[in-house]
Specification:
Helix content is 41%, strand content 8%. The protein is of the alpha+beta class. Helix 7 (148-158) crosses helix 9. The protein is elongated and about 60 Å long.
Length: 335
């Protein structure tokens, strides 16, 4: 029996639900026993398509401006601030892709593209300015004990004086949460250098999804009673991981940032797999499924179809995410 057929038999039989769950848990943790987590540190390469192609070169170049930052960290900050939207504007008057407030821009904005102006709305200026500002903050706190990147991020949130005063990340919950959020998001923008650990919740997420096989698709469906228990693709993945205590964003292209990205050859059951018409831009992702092994996923494909197994190897296969609880928590609520 092929791996694919084994998965289909296990999930199709209602009476085999408990056996399926146990086999999946054992399989995930046997693999996990030999897996190692991705390495940290500066110089991290960007994961495939994690940054929109229009900004990839800028983030890669300016993310190496100083040792306190790296391209994945800079990408995490831009995503957290604006979701890579160069026209973003907050209620506090923060502007552009890097969300500079006017006073900070006046002091720290630079002419990144050398065209003679400093335009907060132009990513060619704003992204270099974000990197430059990070490095300037790092220089202010370079003599403070502890991790230079953590201290730089703390200075970004609370000011360099607070970091110097407390001899490291100050004991402010907002600042500590910001440092953890950005360093966690960094892992979702970095190309892993080794196998990433399996998710402990993967088995439960698949168990939930396989019970929904045969349910009709509904665009915008979240599985609620008033919707007849129906789902669309990201509604299903959100509900599946919600059943094991992990809250994912509602849309697929944000779910892509909920953890590190295993290679196609490293997929494990429970990984989310994504599809896009633009293989260089995660913001163009339009579909997500839950990998079950053997090259197949459970997914809610389109109007008129039902939740079912489908192969993942299509021309639009973009990549995968190994969902982590910290990764999901780090995602901004609006981008």
């Amino acid at each position: 029996m092929t791996v694919r057929k084994a998965w289909i038999v296990a999930t199709a039989a209602v009476s085999a639900g408990a056996a399926f769950m146990m086999a999946l848990v054992i399989g995930v943790y046997l693999v996990g026993g030999s897996a190692t987590s991705g390495a940290g540190g500066a110089g991290k390469a960007l994961a495939k398509g994690a940054v929109p192609a229009a900004y990839q070169t800028l983030v890669q170049k300016w993310g190496n401006l100083c040792s306190a930052i790296n391209p994945a960290l800079l990408a995490a900050q831009l995503y957290q601030e604006s979701g890579f939207n160069p026209r973003a504007q907050s209620a506090a008057a923060a502007q552009g892709i890097a969300q500079f407030i006017p006073g900070t821009w006046a002091t720290h904005g630079i002419d990144g593209d050398g065209d003679g102006d400093r335009d907060v709305w132009d990513p060619n200026d704003a992204i270099p300015s974000a990197a430059s500002y990070d490095c300037q903050l790092a220089s202010y706190v370079k003599d403070v004990p502890g991790d230079i990147t953590h201290n730089m991020l703390a200075a970004y949130n609370a000011g360099a004086y607070a970091v110097i005063r407390y001899g490291g990340v100050p004991p402010y919950s907002e600042t500590r949460n910001y440092v953890k959020t950005i360093t966690t998001l960094e892992e979702s923008f970095a190309a892993p250098v080794s196998r990433v650990d399996p998710s402990e919740q993967a088995a439960g997420a698949i168990y939930y999804a396989q019970k929904k096989l045969g349910t009709p698709y509904l665009w915008g469906g979240n599985g609620t009673a008033d919707q007849g228990g129906r789902f669309d693709c990201s509604g299903l993945s959100k509900a599946a991981y919600g059943s094991v205590g992990i809250t994912l964003p509602r849309v697929a292209n944000d779910q892509y940032n909920a953890g590190p990205h295993p290679r196609r050859s490293e997929l494990l059951p429970g990984d989310l797999v994504f599809f896009s018409t633009d293989l260089n831009n995660s913001r163009a992702i339009h579909h997500v499924g839950i990998y079950v092994g053997g090259g197949y996923m459970i997914n809610a494909p389109y109007t008129g179809a039902v939740i079912r197994f489908d192969p993942i190897d299509t021309a639009e296969y973009f990549g995968a995410t190994r969902v982590t609880e910290d990764g999901a928590k780090a995602l901004p609520t609006t981008v």
